Batch of 2 targets.
Target 1
Amino acid sequence: MSKELSYSDVSEHSSKKDLYVVIHDKVYNATSFVDEHPGGEEVLLDVGGQDATEAFEDVGHSDEAREILDGLLVGTLKRGPGDPKPKTQSYPPSHSNSSQGDAAGFGIGLYAIILVGGALAFGAYKYLQANQEGQVKV
Ligand code: HEM
């Protein structure tokens, strides 16, 4: 069972009655499983005829889910030059990096606010003190 399908072959199977998905460059016929999917049919239909690797891995499916996949195997994906790139490689680093980056950005922003706020408060305190001294003399 090593049928090769191109990306455009797969994209023709995107309806509920005829649904192929690509996961890790393997092509699966999910038609019989759509109604049974614990995550709902909607998410499967969303990735019908497309590369579902990222969506599938994002959820952290169990080994049991992977066994079901084995039973749905149709063949392997043969990528052409103009086809979308595999989503597998970029998936974990880009995700964790972006969230870490956001957290660091927020931390630096908070520091800046505290520093600027502190400087302003100190300036205002000095200004008021000077003003008060002036008033006492008059
Ligand atoms: C043909 C491919 C797929 C198979 C065989 C499959 C199978 C399963 C199975 C067996 C479960 C039960 C929990 C587990 O064992 O991990 C599950 C849950 C789930 N699946 Fe999939 N899945 C597929 C594709 C997808 C895709 C593409 C998405 C897109 C986001 C998705 C989203 C979910 C979600 C959100 C749950 C959790 C449901 C819950 O716990 O309430 N699945 N899937």
Note: The pocket of protoporphyrin IX containing FE is lined by residues 21, 28, 30, 33, 37-39, 43-44, 47, 52, 55-56, 59, 61-62, 64-65, 68-69, 72 (CB under 6 Å).
Target 2
Amino acid sequence: MNSSIIIGIAGGSASGKTSISRQLKEAFENTQSVVIIRQDDYYKDQHQKTMEERIKTNYDHPFAFDNELLVEHLKTLTSGGSVEKPTYDFVHHTRSDHVEHIDSSDVIVIEGLFVLENEELRDLCDIKVFVDTDADIRFIRRLLRDVNDRGRTLDSVVTQYTTRVRDMHNQFVEPSKRYADVIIPEGGQNSVAIDLLLTKISSIIHRNVV
Ligand SMILES: Nc1ncnc2c1ncn2[C@@H]1O[C@H](COP(=O)(O)OP(=O)(O)O)[C@@H](O)[C@H]1O
Ligand SMILES: O=c1ccn([C@@H]2O[C@H](COP(=O)(O)O)[C@@H](O)[C@H]2O)c(=O)[nH]1
């Protein structure tokens, strides 16, 4: 295998980053050539904190992440190695007890809020993508997802969004759009943009085969 390439996918919370990454992975499911790493899995461990303290954490600030470990893992993967990736538990706001074994791959997709905001991460990305979804749509998607999948109440989603998510998005996530090579409006249903990425990935995999 030639050295891996990294596709970075940034964008606001609930913009559609995970949905797009999933579609890229599924298209190459049989080849094992695409691996997805979520920046969310690198939220700092909070086992030492009480639940009350965890709820007060600002999860929308870059400091909430262990980006040092993420960068180290990406470098290991691009040089052909394997990593034991942490996993994150959104219901309990802390790292889970299990890790996932991840092998290197032709294409590594790294998706997360601050993938383009963080200079070290950004510089590791060969292709930089920003998922650009309007704030009202992101809020509606987040509300539904967090209540259905992340154990939240309607009130808690509204409070977190208005006190943290919106301001942090405007301060850190939105300005990072300027670093993108490709901007995908509205996320997961944009089949033209997704096809373009699939074609690019296909050419990388093919290049590594011949
Ligand atoms: N184009 C879309 N139309 C409708 N719902 C969507 C679309 N893209 C994503 N969603 C839904 O919105 C929620 C957030 O999407 P997700 O891909 O998890 O965003 P992110 O990873 O950016 O936080 C999920 O429940 C997902 O199913
Ligand atoms: O313990 C936590 C950790 C994170 N969050 C929120 O999650 C989003 C990031 O995930 P996306 O999949 O990109 O939406 C971030 O906006 C945090 O506010 C949380 O609520 N609790």
Note: Residues 5-205 form a domain with the Rossmann fold fold (CATH 3.40.50.300).
